[in-house]
C-alpha cells in the first residue's frame, strides 16, 4: 500500500516488485529421501540420452574407458560455505563403495578414477548417480537445497548452477494414496512424490488447478516362466503360451491406458540401450496351431494335455496390488481360450518363491538404463547367451549396444519371459502453486532440473 501511494504522488515510476517466493509442501509415503539430488550434486548429470558436466567440467576417458579424469568446477562450496576440494570428492567416491573402482586419486583441482576393468557406461551408470557428500557429514552437500530440518529443504542462495526457483520444500508423511489425493485436492500439499495409481490419472486431469506430468520411468512388468521346470524348459512351449497373452489389453484394462505394451525383446524403445521395434507375439490362432504341433491335445474341461500332463499352472503375483491382480486375471482368461488353465496365487514376495510355474515380476528403471542392469536381470531370469558377457565387458559402448540388440532378438525368440508392459510414471501437482516441473525419463519430478535452469559451461 505504501509503495502504491508514493507512486501516485510522485512523478517517478515505482520499481516492479519481485514475485513472492514459492513454498512447496509435498506428500511422501515415508521419510524424505536423505540422499536426494536436490541436496547432493553428482559429478555429472544425465539429461535425456546425454551426460552433462556438473561438479566435474568434463569427463576424459583413457585406456579404453578404464581411467576417467574429472577436472572439478572452480568456486563450488558446501552448504556452510567451505570450498569443495578434490580430496573431498575422492573421499566421497571411496566411501560410496563402488566395487568396480580400483582407486580414486585427487590431483590439484581434478580427480582421477581408475577402474578394475573398462566400462564405457561408467559416467551414466555410476558418476551421474553417486551423490558427493562431505566426509563425515551425511547432511551437507553442494546441491541447490540445504537440509535445514528433517522434513525441510531450503534454497541454496549461493548455488553455482543458478538460483533455485522454489524457496522451501517441506515434506509431510501421508502413507495412504487416497489421503494424499485428498490433501492435494484441498491444497494442503502441492505435489505427491510417489507415482499415481493408474486409475486416478484421467480423473485428476479434469481438475483445473491440478496438473499431471507423465512419461516413462523404464520400469517393466514381465510374465516370467520357470525355465527349470517342464514344460517351460522348452522355448517352443513358452512361445506358444506367449501367443495367448494380449499385452495391449493389459495396458488398456489393468493400467487404464497408462502405459506402453511390452516389447518381446524387453528393452524399452526409449532406453539408452536402444530398444528395437519388434512385432507383438499375441496371436491366439497361431498359439493354438503351435500347441497342436507340440502334441498338446484337448483334455477334460477343455484343458490341453501335453506329454501326459494337463496344462494347469500356477501364476504367482505379489499381493497388495489391484493392478497386478487384474493383469493376472486377464492373463488367466486369455490363456484359457487356447486351452491352458491358470491359477492366480498372490504371495507376500514373488522374489522369495523358487517353486513356481509362472510369475509376474516388476523390474525397476536401472535394469533398462545400462548393460550391467540388463545383464543382472537376464541372469536372474536364467537366460544364457554369449552376448551377455559382451554386454558387460566390452570397452566400446557401441559394441555393448549391439550386444543388447542381439539379446533382444534372442529373448523374443526364446521367450524366457514375456514383457507385459511399461507403466507410465504419473505425478500430480498443484499447478496454481508451481508449474515448473521438468520430466526426466527414468526419474521422478523431484529432480534438480525441476528447480534450476542450468546454464553451465
From TrEMBL:
GO biological process, one term: peptide transport
SUPFAM superfamilies given in the database record: Periplasmic binding protein-like II (SSF53850)
A cellular-component GO term for this protein: ATP-binding cassette (ABC) transporter complex
Annotated Solute-binding protein family domain residues: 51-381
Gene3D superfamilies attached to this UniProt entry: Dipeptide-binding Protein, Domain 3, Periplasmic binding protein-like II
GO molecular-function terms, A-Z: peptide transmembrane transporter activity
One matching Pfam family: SBP_bac_5
InterPro entries listed in its UniProt record: Peptide/Ni-bd, SBP_5, SBP_5_dom
Protein name: Peptide/nickel transport system substrate-binding protein
Organism, scientific name: Nonomuraea soli
Amino acid at each position: 500500500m505504501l509503495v502504491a501511494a508514493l507512486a501516485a504522488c510522485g512523478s517517478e515510476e515505482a520499481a516492479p516488485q519481485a514475485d513472492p517466493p514459492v513454498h512447496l509442501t509435498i506428500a511422501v509415503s515415508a521419510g524424505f529421501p536423505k540422499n536426494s539430488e536436490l541436496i547432493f550434486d553428482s559429478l555429472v548429470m544425465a539429461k535425456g540420452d546425454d551426460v552433462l558436466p556438473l561438479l566435474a567440467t568434463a569427463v576424459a576417458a583413457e585406456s579404453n574407458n578404464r581411467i576417467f579424469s574429472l577436472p572439478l568446477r572452480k568456486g563450488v562450496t558446501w552448504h556452510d560455505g567451505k570450498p569443495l576440494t578434490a580430496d573431498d570428492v575422492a573421499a566421497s567416491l571411496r566411501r560410496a563403495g563402488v566395487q568396480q573402482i580400483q582407486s580414486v586419486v585427487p590431483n590439484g583441482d581434478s580427480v582421477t578414477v581408475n577402474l578394475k576393468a573398462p566400462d564405457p557406461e561408467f559416467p551414466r551408470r555410476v558418476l551421474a548417480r553417486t551423490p558427493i557428500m562431505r566426509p563425515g557429514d551425511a547432511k551437507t552437500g553442494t546441491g541447490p537445497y540445504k537440509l535445514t530440518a528433517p522434513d525441510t529443504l531450503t534454497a541454496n542462495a549461493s548455488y553455482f548452477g543458478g538460483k533455485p526457483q522454489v524457496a522451501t520444500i517441506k515434506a509431510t508423511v501421508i502413507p495412504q494414496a487416497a489421503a494424499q489425493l485428498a490433501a492435494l485436492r484441498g491444497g494442503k500439499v502441492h505435489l505427491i512424490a510417489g507415482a499415481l495409481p493408474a486409475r486416478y490419472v484421467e480423473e485428476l486431469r479434469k481438475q483445473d488447478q491440478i496438473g499431471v506430468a507423465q512419461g516413462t520411468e523404464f520400469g517393466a512388468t514381465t510374465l516370467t516362466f520357470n525355465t527349470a521346470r517342464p514344460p517351460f524348459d522348452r522355448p517352443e512351449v513358452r512361445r506358444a503360451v506367449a501367443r495367448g497373452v494380449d499385452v495391449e489389453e493389459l495396458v488398456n484394462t489393468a493400467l487404464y491406458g497408462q502405459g506402453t505394451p511390452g516389447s518381446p525383446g524387453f528393452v524399452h524403445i526409449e532406453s539408452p540401450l536402444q530398444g528395437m521395434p519388434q512385432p507383438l507375439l499375441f496371436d491366439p490362432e497361431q498359439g493354438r496351431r503351435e500347441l497342436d504341433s507340440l502334441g498338446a491335445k484337448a483334455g477334460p474341461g477343455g484343458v490341453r494335455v501335453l506329454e501326459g500332463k494337463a496344462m494347469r499352472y500356477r501364476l504367482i503375483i505379489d499381493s497388495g496390488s489391484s493392478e497386478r491382480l487384474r493383469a493376472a486375471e486377464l492373463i488367466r482368461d486369455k490363456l484359457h481360450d487356447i486351452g491352458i488353465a491358470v491359477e492366480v496365487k498372490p504371495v507376500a514376495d514373488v522374489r522369495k518363491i523358487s517353486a513356481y510355474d509362472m510369475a509376474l515380476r516388476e523390474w525397476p528403471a536401472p535394469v533398462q538404463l545400462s548393460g550391467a542392469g540388463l545383464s543382472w536381470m537376464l541372469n536372474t531370469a536364467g537366460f544364457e547367451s554369449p552376448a551377455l558377457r559382451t554386454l558387460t565387458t566390452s570397452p566400446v559402448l557401441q559394441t555393448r549396444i549391439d550386444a543388447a540388440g542381439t539379446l533382444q532378438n534372442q529373448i523374443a525368440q526364446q521367450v524366457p519371459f514375456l514383457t507385459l508392459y511399461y507403466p507410465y510414471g504419473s505425478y500430480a501437482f498443484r499447478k496454481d502453486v508451481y508449474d515448473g516441473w521438468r520430466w526426466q525419463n527414468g526419474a521422478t519430478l523431484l529432480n534438480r532440473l525441476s528447480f534450476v535452469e542450468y546454464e553451465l559451461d
